[in-house]
Amino acid sequence: MAENRGGFRPTAPQNNPANVSGTGGxxxxxxxxxxxxxxxxxxxxxxxxxxxxxxxMAGPTPTSTNMSSGMLPAVTPLTAPTERPNEPITxxxxxxxxxGSEVLNLPRExxxxxxxxxxxxFDSTGEVQTLYDFVASRGL
Length: 140
Known about the structure:
The chain is an all-alpha fold. The protein has helices at residues 44-54, 62-65, 112-119, 127-137. The protein has a domain at 111-140. 24% of the residues lie in helices and 0% in strands. The longest helix has 11 residues, at 44-54.
């Protein structure tokens, strides 16, 4: 006689993402369960557990876990014919036929002094101003 030793059964209730209780239970509260963290110093585990229970974290949103395939564009197979037959394969590259990288609308590269000057207003120590003065004096 065959023995049932468990194992992964795709039809088991715990493996069915659509298994939602009609009364709102079965772990579908919309929040993450509080979890005990082992290995903390004495008394801190209980404090941490109480903090988790007082302000539970939100659970996964329906849009992130149950996205229907109708919301996403169809996947184009690798072997599909090109959708742009009149465009050279080097379009967007700075070599070969077709437009160069200017068509990619990439942000322009900033100099080191431009980057530092945008950081000065957020630095309360004055160190960024000193670094900016040093870099600007060398034209970087």
